[in-house]
Structure formats: structure tokens, C-alpha cells
């Protein structure tokens, strides 16, 4: 089964898009961590649908309830169960996809694997599943903050529009200042126009999101099969719509020479540091102490309102589908808090394993 993630800090997500609720159970959270619903809510509000003009208009409050594992404001070391009730589910638009799989979505493969599925709102393959990840990621972020580790994600490309490189301070200041979550504000404006245009055109666009971790000490990662980069790749690729991941220079490394790629070591204030960071903060599957840098390629939203060819599996004939329901015209801005959560879960897991 693939619903559980992590070894020392382990999470299990559960729930479907139009079921009564979605949620997560965390096992392995250390006792004594101050934790309130407000800590979780902040991250869920960043993930919530209906929050901006570039997100699905589904109106959900996404209020988290902590059911266990927290007593008098502190974690007890026992499993932490959290849930969010689904309130604004409109299943009427989804009868269409019961027997008629959406091109690019998971309807066909879920049906072939399980022979039964809750098709309403995409069921388990819906992005509502990511609520559990984001809630657990908020706890992981609190554990990491104790060690001075901070995680940030931002959109660096949308619909082919590329952002200019930015400083960390710009990312911190700007990611929540615009609906596309791009720290280059000029590019953000052009991206927003592109999203509006593509939505009017009944189409969708994808993009690239960069996720960085600041303050990670050297030594996290468990060679050989649980290398830090391998676990980050698995965690980030495990988010719906992610089609590629790179660490540091990533695919560009293939065209570089060794002398261009290698990050020279030097001593600064008695510490070994690198003067460049093509490795993206990981060497041999172990964190080097430099900033960890990953980028994910996110595909265009599969549910688009244009006519598309598909099949009717009830009578095995060809047909056409025009998808209804409420969908994100583009996913990267909404994936930002989810990607941060997945990186936090991996780093918290490795931090606890290293102890
Ligand atoms: C935050 C987020 C929001 C998403 N929103 C939508 C959406 O509104 N409509 C849709 O069809 N897919 C959406 N997706 C993508 C689907 O969940 C995903 O494409 C589908 O499960 C198939 O998986 P795959 O693309 O990884 O193959 C979203 C994904 C994420 C992570």
C-alpha cells in the first residue's frame, strides 16, 4: 500500500475528495513540541481552494481538527490524527466521468487497478488528498524550525514565462504577495495575464516550482537506498501532476564539464563551505550544509473544458468529453505549500533518523 510515507516521522493520509473528510495520522512526532490548530491552519490556508483568481473556485474553509496526540498544547509522542471536513463537494458534475475517463487524469488507471473507485471529484486522486500532507508538513516544519531549518518554495516558470533569478529575501517577501506565487514581480504580472487568457481559452498551463531548504546541517541522508536526494525525488514526484525533478544544476549538469560543475570548498569562519552550489546541497546522498535546491516540473491541469476524445467504458465505444466541475487553470501556484510540506517531511524524517 502506498498511503504511508517516512520511516522515523511517518504519515498516513486518508480520504477522498467528496467523502465526509480527509486527513492524516502522524506517527513518530517527538513529545513536548508545542502544537496548536493555528500552526496547522496557517499552512492549510495557503493550500486552500478558492483563495485566488488562479485557483479552483471550490469554496472550502478547510478548518483542521486535531483529534489526538496533543495534550495541553504539546505533542505527547502518540499518534497525531488530524482531519478536515469536505463541505462544498458538488458531485453532480462528476457522473460524467464514472465510465468516461478524463484524458491526463487518474480515472482510467485507478479503475483498471482497483476495479472500483469513488469517481466523485476524482476521489482519492484529487488534490484534496494533499491536505493531509500539508497538515503533517506543518508539524514537520515546527520540528525543523527548532534546528534553524526553513523551507521556501516559489514559482519560477509558468506557461513558458520564466522568472529572473531572485535572492532569498525576495522569495520570503514576495511569494504570498501575488496569486501566482512568483518572487519576480514583473514576471508574476505576465504569468497572471497568461493564466487569465488560458482559462478564457478553456485550456490550462503548467510550470516549474523551486523548493529550497535553508540551514540544513551537513550529514542528513542514509546511503545507499535512502539518499537524501532519492527521498526528495520520491516525495516530490509523489505529488499529483509532477512530471520531473532536478536537484541543483539538475539536467543542465549533463552539458557541463567537471570543472564547471564541481563546487570548490573553502573555509569561512572556521566552517567548510562551497563557493558555488551546483550540487544543490547534497553530495553522495548526504546534505553538505549548503542550501538544498530542488525544482519540479508540473504539468498543465488535466481537467480542461474543451472537447476531448475519450472512451465510454460501459459500452467500449469512442466518445467525446467536455469536463465540468471546478478546476485550477494552473497547478504550480497551488503546489507551492504542498511541495514545501513534502520537503519538510523528508528533512524531518532524516533529522529524526540521524538522532
Ligand atoms: C495542488 C494540486 C491541485 C490540482 N488541481 C487539479 C484540478 O483542479 N483539476 C485536475 O484535473 N487536476 C488537478 N490536479 C492534478 C491531478 O491531481 C493529477 O494530475 C492527477 O491525479 C493525475 O496524476 P498525475 O498527473 O501525477 O499522473 C492538482 C494537483 C495538485 C497537486
Order of helices and strands: EEEHEEEEHHEEHHEHEHEEEEEEEH
The global form is: globular
Number of helices: 8
Report how far the terminal alpha carbons are from each other: 28 Å
Bound molecules: flavin mononucleotide
Helix content: 25-40%
Q: Report the CATH C-level class.
A: Alpha Beta
Might you state the CATH topology name?
Chorismate synthase, AroC fold
Secondary-structure arrangement, i.e. CATH architecture:
4-Layer Sandwich
> Can you say what the CATH homologous superfamily is?
Chorismate synthase AroC
How many beta strands in the DSSP annotation? 18
Spans where pLDDT lies below 50 across 5 or more residues: none
Radius of gyration: 21 Å
User: Main beta sheet: strand number and arrangement?
Assistant: 5 strands, antiparallel
Main sheet: strand order: 1-2-3-7-4
Strand content: 15-25%
Kindly give the count of domains: 1
Amino acid at each position: 500500500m502506498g498511503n504511508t510515507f517516512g520511516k522515523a516521522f511517518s504519515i498516513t493520509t486518508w480520504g477522498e475528495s467528496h467523502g465526509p473528510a480527509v486527513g492524516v495520522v502522524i506517527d513518530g512526532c517527538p513529545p513536548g513540541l508545542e502544537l496548536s490548530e493555528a500552526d496547522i491552519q496557517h499552512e492549510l490556508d495557503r493550500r486552500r481552494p478558492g483563495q485566488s483568481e488562479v485557483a479552483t473556485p471550490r469554496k472550502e474553509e478547510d478548518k483542521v481538527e486535531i483529534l489526538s496526540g496533543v495534550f495541553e498544547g504539546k505533542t505527547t509522542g502518540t499518534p497525531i490524527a488530524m482531519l478536515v471536513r469536505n463541505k462544498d463537494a458538488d458531485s453532480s458534475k462528476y457522473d460524467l466521468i464514472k465510465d468516461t475517463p478524463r484524458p491526463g487524469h487518474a480515472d482510467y488507471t485507478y479503475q483498471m487497478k482497483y476495479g472500483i473507485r469513488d469517481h466523485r471529484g476524482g476521489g482519492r486522486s484529487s488534490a484534496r488528498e494533499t491536505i493531509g500532507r500539508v497538515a503533517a508538513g506543518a508539524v514537520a516544519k515546527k520540528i525543523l524550525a527548532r534546528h534553524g531549518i526553513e523551507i521556501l518554495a516559489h514559482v519560477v516558470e509558468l506557461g513558458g514565462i520564466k522568472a529572473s533569478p531572485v535572492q532569498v529575501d525576495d522569495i520570503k517577501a514576495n511569494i504570498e504577495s501575488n496569486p501566482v506565487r512568483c518572487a519576480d514581480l514583473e514576471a508574476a504580472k505576465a504569468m497572471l495575464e497568461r493564466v487569465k487568457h488560458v482559462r478564457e481559452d478553456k485550456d490550462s498551463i503548467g510550470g516549474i516550482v523551486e523548493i529550497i531548504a535553508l540551514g540544513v546541517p551537513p550529514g542528513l541522508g542514509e546511503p545507499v537506498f535512502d539518499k537524501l536526494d532519492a527521498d526528495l525525488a520520491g516525495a516530490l514526484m509523489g505529488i499529483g501532476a509532477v512530471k520531473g525533478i532536478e536537484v541543483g544544476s539538475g539536467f543542465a549538469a549533463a552539458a557541463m564539464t567537471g570543472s564547471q560543475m564541481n563546487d570548490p570548498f573553502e573555509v569561512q569562519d572556521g566552517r567548510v563551505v562551497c563557493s558555488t552550489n551546483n550540487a544543490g546541497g547534497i553530495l553522495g546522498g548526504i546534505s553538505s550544509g549548503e542550501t538544498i535546491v530542488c525544482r519540479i516540473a508540473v504539468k498543465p491541469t488535466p481537467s480542461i473544458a474543451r472537447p476531448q476524445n475519450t472512451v465510454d467504458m460501459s459500452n467500449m465505444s469512442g466518445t467525446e468529453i467536455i469536463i465540468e466541475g471546478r478546476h485550477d487553470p494552473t497547478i504550480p501556484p497551488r503546489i507551492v505549500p504542498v511541495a514545501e510540506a513534502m520537503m519538510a517531511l523528508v528533512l524531518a524524517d532524516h533529522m529524526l533518523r540521524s538522532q
